[in-house]
Every structure is written in C-alpha cells, then in structure tokens.
Amino acid sequence: MIQVFDLTKIYSTGAQPVIALKDVNFEVKAGEFVAVMGPSGSGKSTMMNLLGCLDTPTSGSYKLDGIDISTLDETGMARVRNQKIGFVFQNFNLLPRMTALRNVELPMLYAGIDVRERMRRATSALERVGLADRINHRPNQISGGQVQRVAIARALVNEPAVILADEPTGNLDTRSGEEIMAIFQELNRGGSTIVLVTHERDIALHASRIIHFRDGRLVDDEKVETSLDAVEQKKIMGESNPRQGGK
Amino acid sequence: MSLLESIRVALEGIRANKLRSFLTTLGIIIGIAAVIAVVAIGQGGRAILMAEMEKLGTNIFTIYVDWRSGAQPTGKMLELSDVQVLKDKVPGITHISANTSTMEDVRGSKNKKYSRVSGVSSDYEYIRKMTIKTGHFFSREDDSLGRRVAVLDEALADEIFGRSKPVGNIIRIGSTPFIVVGVVAKGDSILGLSEEPRVFIPSRSWQNMFGTYVNSLEGSALSREKVQETMEQAVKVLERRHRSSAQYVSYSMEQEMQSANQVTGIMTLIIGAIAGISLLVGGIGVMNIMLVSVTERTREIGIRIALGASRKDILTQFLIESVVLCLIGGIIGMLLGVGGAFLIAKLANWPPLVSWWTMLIAFTFSATIGIIFGMLPANKAAKMNPIEALRRDT
Questions:
Q1: Which of A32-36, B76-80, B286-290 has the lowest mean pLDDT?
Q2: Exposed end of chain A (fewer CB within 10 Å): N or C?
Q3: What is the average pLDDT score of chain B?
Q4: Using the beta-carbon criterion (under 8 Å), do B304 and A106 form an inter-chain contact?
C-alpha cells in the first residue's frame, strides 16, 4: 500500500539546511496497522506530511496505492489527499461553524459527490463511529472524544487507501483515547490500513507494528507480538481515569 | 467543488460574520446606491428639461447683434423693416417678430408695478405659443400703425387691476396711456416666460416711446429639422441688407437643447464618476476585510487542503465569497438607490428615470469589484502552506 524508497527531506529555509529525513525506506502492506514513534525532532512529523501529500520530498520516491506521488502536480496531489488519504489530527481540525454532518461531508464536496449521496455516506460514517445521534451537533456542543470520532468519520468517508492519524489521542483523556483506539482497531479489523504517529508507547502498542525514528532516520522496525486491545484496556480502567492533556 | 456548493460555503462564511459582512459591504452599498440615484435623478432632470424646452417649441430661433465681436457694428444692424423683409425672403420662416424691451412703471386702475415692457410684433403670440386668457393679442395693423394697445400677462393684470377687468381699460406705461386689449395666461412651462411681470406692446409703439432700436428678432421655422437652415438663411439676408458680416449671433431652441443635453450629461457623468470613486473605495474595503478573513481562517484553509481541496478550489471559494459579498452589497445598494431616486424625485417633483441598463451596470460593476478586489486575498489563501496552516491556533 505504501512504499517509501530512500526518502530524504531537507529544509533549506534557514541559514543552515536542516536534514529532517535521511534515506528512509519502508513498506506498509494493505490492512496493516503501523505506529510511527520517535521523540520530537526525530522526523516523524515530516514523514507524516510526506505520506499525507502535504509536502514533497527533496529526493527519493513514495508510492501510495500504486501511484508514484513524485510524478504528480498540485492538482494530482490534491486528488490523492482527497481519494487515498484520510487524516486524523491531534487537534481534531473540524470546522467549528459546521455541524458534524457537514464536516464529514467536506471531503466528498471536493470529490464532486452529489448532495444525496453525500448525506447518505456521511450519516453512515457517523453511525460507524457511534455518533448517529450527534449528526447535527457542532464541534463545541460535543466532547473531545466525540469530536475526534467525527474526525475519524470524516477520514473514512471517501474510503481512503490509508488513514493517517497524527497523535489522535494527544488531546484526549486516557479513557477517550482508548475509545478512539478501539475505533481504529475496529476499522483495521475491517481491512483499513492505518498509520498512526504517537510518542506514547501505550498507544503505539495498539498497532501491530511500530517503526521508530530518530534524527531523521528509521532506526527500528518492531513487530508487536500481542497488541493491546482497546476494549479490554477500557474495562480495566473502569469508570474514570483522567489524564493530563485531557480536554 | 461545484459553483453552487462554493456559493453555499461563501454564504455560510458571510452569515457567520453578519455584522462584519454588512460593514464590509457598506462601501459597496453606498457606492452603488449613489451611482444609481445620481444617474436616475440626472436622467430624470434631463428628461424634464427637454420636455420643457420642447413645450416652448423646438422650431424657434433668435437673432441678435453680437456687440462683443470686437468690430464696431456699422449702421443700424436690426430694423423693424427687417421683420417684413425676412418674412418675404426666407420661405422657411413661419412667424417672425422684433423684440425690444425695457423696464418701466406700469399703472393700472388699482396699482402700479415696475415691469418689463416689450415691444414685439403681432407674430410674437404664435412664436411663443401664448395662450390668450381674455381679449386678443394686438394685430399687425396695430403694430404697423403704432397703436397704443397693450397685452398684459396674467400676473401683472391681477396685480395692477385687482378684481376689475383689464381688457378695455387704460394702463399707463410711464405717463403714456395704452388700452389693454388682451391678457395672456401664465405658461405652464417652468422655463417659460420669466417670473417678472410683463406687458407687450406693438414694436412700433415701443420705438415711438423709447427709441428706434431693435434688440433681437425671434422667429419660428416650419419644423425642428428646418430651424438651423432657416436661421442661417435669415442671417445671410440680414448681412446682405445691412452690409455687414459675422456680427449676428443666432441660436435656436434646438441648439439650446443640445447644449443643455450636453451640460446635464456632463454633470451626470461627473457626479457619477465621484460616486464611482466611492465604489472603488468600497472595493478596497472589501479587499481589506477579505485579507483579514483569509488570515483568520488560515486553519480552515489548511483543513480544506488536507481534505483534498486544490489551490483552485480555495481560490474559487474566496473569490466567490468576495463576489457574493459585493453582489449582496450591490443589490442592497440598488434597492436603496432606486428608493432614494424616487424619494428625491418626489421631493423635487420630477420623474426619476431608473433604466434597466443602470441596474445591469451596477450589478456587473459590483461583481467585477468582487473579482478584482477578491483576487489578492483569494490568491493569498490559495498559496497557503497547508502544514503551517494546520499548525495555526486559529
């Protein structure tokens, strides 16, 4: 699904060029659930931007679902973002003025899908994340965990090749975080390919594989023997266990 | 993204900031309203002026001696006999009259009034399309014999006679007695005879009293189209007769109308241009707020790009928002402008002329302003780096 060859990214905006990524090679197969870990400055965010087609590499190549991204122009990249990638962000990034439904419809707007189909698919995506009764709420009317679930529904709605989640639990309490991870695991069981960036091992352990970045290089590719099951974790936690960074 | 969707998104954006959107478009509203009102009132004013001039007659002309031409006029440039000569020699002339006037006290049975005393020929009645209220205008014979007969205008008659009937009574112009033979009704034209009280006497009688000169000749031609030609022929005859050239000045109502048309046209244009400048200023206001809006919505732009909006989609979105904003302003401005034009027209008592093309121009103009002044902000939005945009707090 994802093939990365000798990917290098150098930022030359400052006085001294900064090497953010250096000769990174890896592959993510369809249906895999991969966590990307590393301290800040390790290049994992840069990696995420490149995978998300929000940025272009200095050298090397990146293939997503068989498409060589380096050959694409601006519009082509926009189409790939729209059709092949579903983003989930740490700070949710929903449009605050719009209802959950409208937010989830947004990617389909740029895909040119007609109103009725948009409505149908957005509703069903919201049902999948368990928010059927919240479709007409705005982001400020629901909890942080629910907001992130709307964002996941939005990421799903165009049936992307890969879901890219950048610290999706970072702004949530542990309990809500586990709920989100449960959804990801559920989606993964349904066949979705997921790449998740995190700096918390507890979260990364929900994936089936962890790749580690340090100083712009891929330093370790770790297979998780027995992934943490989010549903189980939630049961262990019990009712409430607020964590720092919770919204 | 389809155009309809873009418009919907734009409307959502505008609705989210109602007050600001309104204040932003205020410049456009005022600009469009001003342009429409000014043009409508200008057009209405011009129409009424033209109608009034037409009422006076489009086929009339005046010839007088140009005393400012520098060269000293030789001999008598205009004489009473010219009236008959022109009538004989220029077939295009339907009526012609001498016209000379002075101010003098006119005394009736009740009062006296300092009035304009005009010596004219009997044709004057027809040239000026006078309506006789009572009695009749003096005849050609009265003129040629220099009879002391007078025609008063209605206002003067009321003033100096009060309730008693003027016709058949005596008035004194200075100390000379005249018999009143008729009263002319006040014209309904606002451009017509001036407000000052007037009395008309035969031109010969006038010369007998005040001196043998003639200020001007007034005439009417067969038709509006013929007036220029007729007038020029008349001037030629006069030049030949008095052996002088280039010292007569002539102008027709037709010329007068053309120059009035030109003047009102220029006035409308100038005021319209000033209003247009206010529209430009309004456009700059829109651009300003759109730039602020783009900055404020940096994160939104980042999100949209991440979700698959192309640069073109972002550009279109902000451009449409700017156009929609300007069009809303344009429509409100149009309504205000038309309303204002009707209001002012009602107060000034003339018909406002709101033509469909003014509306069309206003509409196109506001859309164009939206595009022109939306371009810079929209471009700024489209060029945004999504990674930085997503990292923003706003």
A1: B76-80
A2: C
A3: 86
A4: yes
* Phi/psi of residue A41, nearest 5 degrees: 85, 0
For the segment B323-351, the average pLDDT, to the nearest whole number, is 87
CB B334 within 8 A of CB B359: yes
Q: Do A74 and B310 touch (CB under 8 A)?
A: yes
Q: How many angstroms separate the CA of residue A105 from the nearest CA in chain B?
A: 10
Contact state of A79 with B310 under an 8 Å Cβ cutoff = yes
Report chain A's mean pLDDT, rounded to a whole number.
90
Q: What are the CA-CA distances from residue A182 to residues A130, A220, B41, B269 (Å)?
A: 12, 25, 71, 71
Question: Which residue does chain A place closest to B14, by CA atoms?
Answer: A97
Return the ∠ at Cα B393 (arms to B387 and B394), rounded to 5°: 100
Contact (CB<8Å) A97/B302? no
**Chain A residue closest to B301 (CA)?**
A95
Evaluate whether the domain defined by A30-56+74-237 bears CATH number 3.40.50.150.
no
pLDDT for A15 beyond 90:
no
pLDDT of B74 over the 60 cut: no
Contact in structure between B370 and B69 (CB atoms under 8 Å): no
pLDDT exceeds cutoff 80 at B188:
no
> Is 60 exceeded by the pLDDT of residue A150?
yes
Run of H or E including A111: helix A100-111
Instruction: Kindly state whether A46 is in contact with chain B, defined as any CB-CB distance less than 8 angstroms.
Output: no
